[in-house]
Amino acid sequence: MKSQQLRQLLDSLSLDEKIGQLVQLSGEFYQAQNIATGPQKSLGITQNLVDLSGSVLNVTGAEQVKRVQEEHLKKSKHPIPLLFMADIIYGYHTVYPIPLGIGATWDPKLVEEAYHNTADEASASGVDVTFAPMLDLVRDPRWGRVLESTGEDAMLNSHFARAMVNGLQKDLPNGRGLAACIKHFAGYGAAEGGREYNSADISLSNLKQNYLPAYRAAVDAGAKMVMASLSTLNGVPGTGDQWLIDDMLRKQWGFDGVVISDYASIQELVDHGFARDREDAARLAITAGVDIDMKSPCYANGLKQLLNQGRISEEKINQAVWRVLSLKNDLGLFENPFRGASIERESHSILSSDKRAVARKMSQEAIVLLKNEDEVLPLAKQSNKKIAVIGPYSDEADLIGLWAVHADSNDTVTLADGIKEKLNDSYYSISKGTDILRDKKFFDQFGTAEESVKRSISSNEEEIKQRQKSLKNAAKADIIIFACGEHPLQSSEAGSRVLLRLPQNQVDLFNELVELQKPIITIVFSGRPLVLTDLVSKSSALLQAWFPGTEGGHALADILFGDYNPSGRLSMSMPYIEGQLPMHYDHLSTGRSEETSQHNSRFVSRYVDSPSKPLFPFGFGLSYGELVYSKLVMERSQLKLGETVESYVTINNIGNYNRYEVVQIYFHDDVASVAQPVKRLVDFKRVFIKAGETKQVKFSIPINQLGFYDRKGNYQLEPGTFTFFAGSDSMAMLSEQVELIQ
Ligand code: GLC
């Protein structure tokens, strides 16, 4: 519809119709038989506002979406279509590795293709908007939602932010695709203590240097929506933060799209002690620039009163409604309220073989090889060696993590499925050995139904039987593959943990297997970096598989048997022990760096009871074979403002395997008016290099990228020397210096 017509529509709306556009309800309002006594009563809003609400949360499926849309339009005096929004964070029905695994691919191009596929699947199911990508930078794996982040580096996260938004929104002009709603704006990832929903205190320079860039990259890539965070940044809840939303996002960044609250987060402004009551919460949120109230009654019950009391202007409401109507218009909903929804399209698009192929590739690239002693991997497909696959994840289908809410883990390829396709069945055995988790208290805390607990925790007799079967299989085997990990419920939203270990029952089984003194290849399934220190030391090889997604079993088998040379590189540091947390590679040197301080060994920045370094650093990952970084050349040793640092890195593949290598370039601003990180990633290239090949990998880095934000949040670039490092991870040591002159 033309802008003028849209304006006329807005002007023709009653106040209730306008407020309705700013209310988002969830599926039960559209599926339950008697909503009056159910969801409507519990939320406390009128039937009139239910009928006038403008968008729906997590209702998907072409048939269902069409039905709900038709019924809605029939009721409306002014036929304004509903927007269907859903949480589709890392895949719809074809699920990729969790974003922390996607971060380990260092392959934004593949990620764009994958998210384009996801948008094709979900738009066929009638979804218009996805609450993704989640762009919170993370430094503390105690927080369960590190699962949803691509990691600890602002630049790498920004590459993925652009790729995901572009992939999701690419087909919007032809009525497919998904509008991206980036979240959680802003700084939720710095929750103190890694405790869920906890407050975040971030200095302005740190906020601008690390926590905001990925959101900015997504906004610049044209993201259609932003979700305000439910947590506080420096004492102000994101959902009521006028400085962050109206000043920064809208005025400074020029974002003119829709801002939505997080789930009931407007109402929670009262719980924060930031709003006096729900009406006050509505005033604060609409004033801050939040357009849609997700699943709270504040706008529905409060905006009219606030207007009548003169505490908000009708202009404020009109601006919010205009943004919502404009989004619907951009998506073509007035011309076609069903947009991409099509049962026929669904049948061809969902879990198609080409989409599975992309998911398999993503899983291959996400898995990180952390240890490979005596090149025990890859395993030969034709050998007389017997393999015992043991552990709770040996044939587990739930490899998709908790935030794949619309997928079915029965569509997953398990590790056992993958191995069976590679080996003759006389060469392997599969046994669970123990449950993922046997701690009933853990499940009881969520009020998990007894039936479901029984499905998760075997009887003691069954447990003993499983254990004995595994030990018997192990005794007959030459090699053991131990498939272990955390329970999906131990991670993701509301999955914060203080001890990041494997469940004790798995550790006990592992230690019994170690007694057999056979090579153990350990595969870890998790939604975060766990503390693997003991596991690594007793394993011959270790693969970090994350929750690897629908094609996880195929990807793992491809790596185990050499059909894919692992190329994953950590996008988040892995701690030696929890007490080191939070940790990140781009830390400051301090005045008493452990490596360089003149003080004696006691009085330096360290712990007396643990190493200071991570177990595995940001950027780390092994591949099969051997590769050498032989030279880093900076084409000029002096540059002026506005110029570009041209450099190249020479790498030699001296191994016997073709491979991908993620060549990483870091830099340190040697002297600055605000102390700078010992290293900061500034560029990377994922290159394919054949066995025996030598390659020169070229980098062109605009000097302006080397600046930093000072304490007032102003961007600075000061003359002086910059040390550049090239290597295969953030411990890279090949270095050269360049000077920026006036
Ligand atoms: C949740 C999450 C948010 C999600 C929303 C809707 O609480 O914080 O990421 O998109 O509610 O499900």
Protein described:
- The chain is an alpha/beta fold and 742 residues long.
- Among the domains are: 355-572, Glycoside hydrolase family 3 C-terminal domain (Rossmann fold), CATH 3.40.50.1700; 627-740, Immunoglobulins (Immunoglobulin-like, Sandwich).
- It is 32% helix and 18% strand.
- The strands form six sheets. Strands 9-6-5-4-3-2-1-10 form an eight-stranded parallel sheet.
- Helix 24 (533-538) links the parallel strand 15 (520-525) and strand 16 (541-544).
- Helix 8 (108-124) packs antiparallel against helix 17 (343-349) and helix 8 runs antiparallel to helix 18 (353-366).
- The protein is globular, with a radius of gyration of 27 Å.
- The model has no long low-confidence stretch (mean pLDDT 96).
- Bound molecules: alpha-D-glucopyranose (GLC).
Question: What would you give as the CATH superfamily of the domain at 355-572?
Answer: Glycoside hydrolase family 3 C-terminal domain
The tally of helices reads: 25
Largest sheet: 8 strands, parallel
What is the annotated CATH architecture of the domain at 355-572? 3-Layer(aba) Sandwich
Widest sheet, order of strands: 9-6-5-4-3-2-1-10
* Bound ligands: alpha-D-glucopyranose
Number of strands: 26
Strand-pairing-aware structural class? alpha/beta
Poorly predicted parts: none
- Quick one: overall form? globular
Radius of gyration: 27 Å
The chain-level mean pLDDT equals 96
- The level 1 CATH classification of the domain at 355-572 is Alpha Beta
**Approximate strand percentage:** 15-25%
> Level of helix content?
25-40%
